[in-house]
Amino acid sequence: MRESSDFLRSVLDTIGTHVVVIDGSGLIRFANSPWRRFSRSNGGDIEEWVGVDYLAECDAAAGRGEAEGAEALDHIRAVMSGERDVSSIDYSCHSPDEVRYFLMTVTALTHEGARYYAVSHQNITERRLAEQASERLARVDSLTGIANRRRFEEFLTESWRRGARESTVLALALIDIDHFKALNDRGGHLAGDDLLEMVGKVLDTFACRPGDLCARYGGDEFALLLADATDNGAEARVGELLEAVRALPFEIPITASIGLATTQPDGTRQASALVRAADGALYRAKELGRDQMYRVSI
Q1: Rounded to the nearest 5 degrees, what angle is found at the Cα of 227, between the Cα atoms of 296 and 135?
Q2: Which of the four pLDDT bands, split at 50, 70 and 90, describes residue 67?
Q3: How many CA atoms lie within 13 A of 109 on its CB side?
Q4: Residue 102 and residue 55: Cα distance in Å, rounded?
Q5: Which of 69, 99, 244, 281 is a good FRET partner for 22, with 20 to 30 A between their CA atoms?
Q6: Which residue in 279, 270, 163 sits closest to 226, CA to CA?
Q7: How many Å apart are CA 286 and CA 177, to the nearest integer?
Q8: What residues contact residue 25 under an 8 Å CB cut-off, 6+ apart?
Q9: pLDDT band at 133 (very low <50, low <70, confident <90, very high)
């Protein structure tokens, strides 16, 4: 039996996952080598973990403002109380030099009539970073490199709620490249793509604050959302944008029509009201002869 126990310890010491086993009072009865090594590399000062009150360690981490400590306690207690047999949670554990994510799993077990709880911490950093990269790609327009319509709609909803809370003005400009179909037919799709990329880069220079966003709204139509704006300030910036489009170094002169709508969000309307207003203003700019901005306030 002793040989069997030593063998199992050796197995747990060779796996990459950090594992401790605690008893019903929260005291650590076993800690594998990866657990001890990670503790030392993470600046921990506990050399021998057996006998340490793991619940107290989690409680101390929560007291220092480390959210993962409080979350770990909740999941461990859920298993210890019998509410669950297994409980898992993803959490971040970043160091000054490294981004790290872990999956903590708590599992109840019985040995010689006593209840114990295995707590494992698996490094899932590579998987989480890949997921984050995939999520970012899903919100970026592959041609222009700026936000796509999905990201724009998410950001608009967030900005509308923030504007309603803080009573600030939100401005939305919808930009349409004039006669883009004719340009595309004349120069071909590659030339059209080059122009879209150029417009995207110009727009990106106008979304210069954390609350601003530029996006490819669809086809040759773009959007520029300006948070915490003023009517006159938004109009001035969009006027500069018109000039920047005219100055694009393309093989033929390029102009744009822009519909600008400004409003102070509130709880009685949806963010879509701002999009409808900007779209109507864009239509009016085209009606008036293109190469201009038309502004409305709602």
Answers
A1: 120
A2: low
A3: 13
A4: 18
A5: 99
A6: 163
A7: 10
A8: 53
A9: confident
Distance between CA 181 and CA 178 in Å, rounded?
Answer: 9
Cβ atoms of 102 and 91 within 8 Å: the answer is: yes
Beta pairing, strands 293-297 & 86-92: unpaired
Whether the CB-CB separation of 181 and 237 falls below 8 Å is answered with no
What is the band of 230 on the pLDDT scale with cuts at 50, 70, 90? confident
User: pTM of the full predicted structure?
Assistant: 0.63
User: What are the pLDDT digits (tens) for 188-207?
Assistant: 778 889 999 999 999 999 99
Residue 288 has a pLDDT of 96
Residue written as token pair 């554990």: 93
Domains parsed from the chain with CATH numbers: 2-128 (3.30.450.20), 138-297 (3.30.70.270)
Give the CA dihedral 127, 133, 137, 140, nearest 10 degrees.
Answer: 150
Around Cβ 249, how many Cβ atoms within 10 Å? 6
- Cβ distance 249 to 255 under 8 Å? no
Q: What is the DSSP string of the chain?
A: -HHHHHHHHHHHHHSSSEEEEEETTSBEEEE-HHHHHHHHHTT---S--TT-BHHHHHHHHHHTT-HHHHHHHHHHHHHHTTS-SEEEEEEE--BTTB--EEEEEEEEEEETTEEEEEEEEEE-HHHHHHHHHHHHHTTB-TTTSSB-HHHHHHHHHHHHHHHHHHT-EEEEEEEEETTHHHHHHHH-HHHHHHHHHHHHHHHHHH--STT-EEEEEETTEEEEEEEEE-HHHHHHHHHHHHHHHHT---SS---EEEEEEEE---TTS-THHHHHHHHHHHHHHHHTTSSSEEEEE-
The pLDDT tens digits for 248-265 are: 998 889 999 999 999 999
Q: Which residue has the tokens 């669809």?
A: 218
Tell me which amino acid residue 90 is. Answer: D
